[in-house]
């Protein structure tokens, strides 16, 4: 009798303990998924339209808020429906999320307070300025700055030693509750205090030794207030973005991080620090000591950092959040590969200490591929925008928890098909890149010899005058292009319209007396898209909008395969322009680094390879232009500086391929072809040797706005090719007098050798009107004539 009884109990307890073990096991040993942030634009560009309608006075603040509320709901639901565990809140914005922090913290510089605007209008005035002469309102915007190495721009509000922080608007609590009321539990997102103070601007009138980071002690209480309110409202987790960790300078911020997080941790929900846009580097030494719940890593950009970080945190209480799904590109993630990387972390820490996530906020990606009607099935199978990335994050977590979903299986198939496509795309182009020789990277002779040949070939006077490329893009030009796009103009009619514009530009230059002509670029919609559309290897979305700043969105082309040039791209227009005049015509091209930088690059081959493929296509174009009788060719690389990596130790390898790409594209021609390049900035500082290494025959730079001191840099480095520092600022409609331009030339001639100087405005004239352009260039030509006598 006893045995069955005890057996019964034994079995019962055994089953019970397995049951309990399973519950606990399931609860704790599960990999979770997270998304750091989401696009703000709204399906159908709802947010953008509502904001612009409000600005135009077409709708009320209430109407704008109701659209914003609907968009926030749509975003949360979309992320939730994808199956993501940690859903962000508080990172939605009507203009910029850094600006939101300043405004919410009550940092409103006096010049905005004085306008006596409503709260919302004060906020927008801080972002974009406001002018309403009738009401006596006139206030400039805060400074805008690039957000790490993305194309998103933040609004940097002025901070000074007497800046005070006072919680004006608890956006994070409001949105947390708003989501909760919809039945959605979220993880609120704020910039961490260190990144906040590192990104805002130091007021112009602040003392020289002041830096905003000195305000840390004053700022901490506001963060405590926000975080405590979130905890009180039931938030279990909070995400504090500290992307400053991707920079070298953060390595010396150990004391600040310690101070901040020791103060915040006791009152806050569980803190995850995110470190998007690069690697944490040596900062891990102090990060591992912080009283935080988890550390997020950007493993899309920097997968190699995983091992050392795991080693550093394995004996701490810090969990890891693996930023595997790229927030920066538009490619489908290789989930199988991500799974293997995540497994490494699980092996070291255990599944309960691992979260899989996006590498950054998804704000840098368009919303969804589902609305793209013009892409083929095959092309769509390669891509993943925000909505699809959320599904990937969730599928990855499921797979790590032992449930491979249909999405995961499909992903494996799609990735394999994409790899096969990549392998077979265009071997001729690859062979050509592999066959690039040192010789192809250099002009045939050094500059002095080329210069002599060019003097004969172009026959330009001393102090030659020229412009940067574009002439005013009038309403007529834009209308013709729009009509052609809609099929209301035939190709022939469109070409005739463009030829008429070119004729006008040539006549204008004859009349004004310029020396080196341009065709004026009426046919170009955009300096990158124009080329992308004519090259193989690019695709274009219809609705792939990505935020650049405020309500401004761009639609970057996507490089999907090996790039080549099926036919000449600009020769037809330049040759036509040259046929109208005896003066030399300058051909105009956008350089390889810039075309690539302003597009979504491929993820399967390096940017270096893609840039060289583009360079080879442009090299052929340069040669064809020369063969068509064009004697000077300008190749613009405004993005060389813009594309600099965040960490200095990565600069050299980048600059090497960037410079090589430019040289590759311009070195296929004879010595007598004059190669120009233009830089629409003047802050060359530490990249000067690379500018010199481009070995362009002529460079033009935006010197007019900046101090002439910059020219000293050229002198001190011994720059010896020709140079055209802008002699007037085209960014304002103001017409410079002849005397002003003479004075500038005279000032420049004190620093630069007169016989190397070219006289030009500081940028293209696309945004100007014809009238002011004519008056300004007439004065420019007169001043150059004066200089020829003065410095004969
Ligand atoms: C505002 O309304 C006017 C008149 O209806 C319209 O022409 C304009 O396009 C609207 N602007 C915006 C930004 O909604
Ligand atoms: C070019 O690249 C840099 C660095 O990656 C980035 O900051 C910049 O915004 C890019 N420009 C565009 C137009 O995307
Ligand atoms: C998936 O990843 C594993 C481990 O890295 C690898 O062995 C396997 O070949 C991959 N499978 C596919 C289909 O790519």
TrEMBL record:
GO terms for molecular function: 5-methyltetrahydropteroyltriglutamate-homocysteine S-methyltransferase activity; zinc ion binding. Binds 2 Zn(2+) ions per subunit. Pfam families: Meth_synt_1, Meth_synt_2. Zn(2+) binds at residues 678, 680, 702, 763. L-homocysteine binds at residues 468-470, 636. One of its GO terms (biological process) is methionine biosynthetic process. Residues 463-785 form the Cobalamin-independent methionine synthase MetE C-terminal/archaeal domain. Residues 33-344 form the Cobalamin-independent methionine synthase MetE N-terminal domain. L-methionine binds at residues 468-470, 521, 636. Its cofactor is Zn(2+). Keywords: Amino-acid biosynthesis, Metal-binding, Methionine biosynthesis, Methyltransferase, Transferase, Zinc. Its EC number is 2.1.1.14. CDD domains: CIMS_C_terminal_like, CIMS_N_terminal_like. The active site is at residue 731. 5-methyltetrahydropteroyltri-L-glutamate binds at residues 48, 151, 598. Gene3D superfamilies: 3.20.20.210. Pathway: Amino-acid biosynthesis; L-methionine biosynthesis via de novo pathway; L-methionine from L-homocysteine (MetE route): step 1/1. It comes from the Eukaryota. Belongs to the vitamin-B12 independent methionine synthase family. NCBIfam families: met_syn_B12ind, PRK05222.1. Catalyzes the transfer of a methyl group from 5-methyltetrahydrofolate to homocysteine resulting in methionine formation. This is 5-methyltetrahydropteroyltriglutamate--homocysteine S-methyltransferase. It comes from Naematelia encephala.
């Amino acid at each position: 009798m006893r045995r069955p009884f005890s057996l019964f109990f034994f079995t019962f307890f055994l089953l019970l303990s397995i049951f309990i073990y399973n519950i606990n096991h399931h609860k704790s040993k599960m990999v979770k998924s997270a998304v750091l942030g989401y696009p703000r634009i709204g399906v159908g560009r709802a947010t953008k339209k509502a904001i612009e309608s409000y600005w135009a006075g077409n709708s009320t603040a209430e109407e704008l808020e109701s659209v914003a509320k609907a968009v926030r709901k749509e975003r949360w639901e979309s992320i939730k429906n994808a199956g993501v565990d940690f859903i962000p809140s508080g990172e939605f914005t009507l203009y910029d999320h850094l600006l939101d922090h300043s405004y919410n913290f009550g940092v409103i510089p006096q010049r905005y307070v004085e306008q006596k605007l409503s709260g919302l209008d004060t906020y927008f005035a801080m972002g974009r300025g406001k002018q309403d002469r009738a009401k006596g309102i006139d206030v400039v915007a805060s400074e805008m700055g690039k957000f790490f190495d993305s194309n998103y721009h933040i609004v940097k509000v002025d901070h000074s030693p007497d800046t005070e922080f006072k919680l004006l608007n608890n956006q994070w609590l409001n949105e947390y509750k708003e989501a909760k009321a919809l039945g959605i539990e979220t993880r609120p997102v704020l910039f961490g205090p260190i990144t906040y103070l590192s990104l805002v601007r130091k007021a112009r009138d602040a003392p020289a030794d002041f830096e905003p980071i000195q305000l840390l002690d004053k700022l901490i209480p506001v963060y405590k207030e926000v975080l405590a309110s979130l905890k009180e409202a039931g938030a279990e987790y909070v995400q504090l973005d500290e992307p400053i960790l991707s920079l070298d300078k953060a390595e010396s911020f150990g004391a600040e991080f310690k101070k901040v997080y020791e103060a915040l941790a006791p009152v806050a929900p569980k803190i995850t620090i995110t470190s998007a846009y690069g690697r944490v580097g040596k900062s891990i030494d102090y990060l591992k000591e912080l009283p935080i719940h988890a550390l997020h890593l950007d493993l899309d950009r920097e997968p190699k950092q995983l091992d050392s970080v795991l080693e550093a945190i394995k004996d701490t209480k810090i969990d890891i959040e693996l930023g595997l799904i790229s927030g920066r590109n538009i490619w489908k993630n290789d989930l199988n590969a991500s799974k293997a990387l995540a497994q490494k972390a699980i092996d070291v820490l255990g599944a309960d200490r691992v979260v899989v996530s996006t590498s950054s906020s998804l704000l840098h990606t368009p919303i969804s591929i589902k609305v793209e009607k013009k892409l083929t099935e095959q092309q769509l199978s390669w891509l993943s925008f925000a909505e699809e990335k959320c599904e990937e994050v969730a599928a990855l977590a499921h797979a790590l928890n032992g449930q491979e979903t249909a999405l995961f299986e499909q992903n494996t198939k799609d990735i394999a098909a994409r790899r096969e496509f990549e392998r077979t795309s265009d071997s001729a182009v690859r062979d050509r890149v592999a066959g690039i020789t040192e010789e192809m990277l250099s002009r045939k002779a050094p500059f002095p010899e080329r210069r002599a040949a060019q003097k004969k070939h172009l026959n330009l006077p001393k102090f030659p005058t020229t412009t940067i490329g574009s002439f005013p893009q009038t309403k007529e030009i834009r209308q013709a292009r729009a009509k052609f796009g809609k099929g209301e103009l035939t190709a022939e009619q469109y070409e005739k319209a463009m030829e008429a514009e070119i004729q006008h530009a040539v006549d204008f230059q004859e009349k004004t007396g310029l020396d080196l002509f341009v065709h004026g670029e009426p046919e170009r919609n955009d300096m990158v898209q124009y080329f992308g559309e004519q090259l193989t290897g690019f695709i274009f979305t219809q609705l792939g909008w990505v935020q650049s700043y405020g309500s401004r969105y761009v639609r970057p082309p996507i490089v999907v395969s090996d790039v080549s040039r099926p036919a000449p791209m600009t020769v037809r227009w330049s040759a036509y322009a040259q046929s109208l005049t005896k003066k030399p015509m300058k051909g105009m091209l956008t350089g390889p680094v810039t075309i690539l930088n302003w597009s979504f690059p491929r993820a399967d081959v390096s940017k270096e390879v893609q840039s060289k493929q583009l360079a080879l296509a442009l090299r052929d174009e340069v040669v064809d232009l020369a063969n068509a009788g064009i004697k000077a060719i300008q190749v613009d690389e405004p993005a060389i500086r813009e594309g600099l990596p965040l960490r200095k130790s990565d600069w050299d390898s980048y600059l090497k391929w960037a410079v090589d790409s430019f040289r590759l594209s311009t070195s296929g021609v004879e010595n007598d072809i004059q190669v120009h390049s233009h830089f629409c900035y003047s802050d060359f500082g530490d990249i000067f040797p690379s500018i010199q290494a481009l070995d362009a025959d002529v460079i033009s730079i935006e010197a007019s706005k900046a101090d002439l001191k910059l020219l000293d840099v050229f002198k001190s480095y011994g720059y010896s090719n020709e140079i055209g520092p802008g002699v007037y600022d085209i960014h304002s409609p103001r017409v410079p007098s002849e005397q002003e331009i003479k004075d500038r030339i005279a000032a420049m001639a004190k620093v630069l050798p007169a016989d190397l100087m070219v006289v030009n405005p500081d940028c293209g004239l696309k945004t100007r009107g014809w009238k002011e352009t004519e008056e300004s260039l007439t004065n420019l030509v007169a001043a150059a004539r004066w200089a020829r006598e003065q410095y004969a």
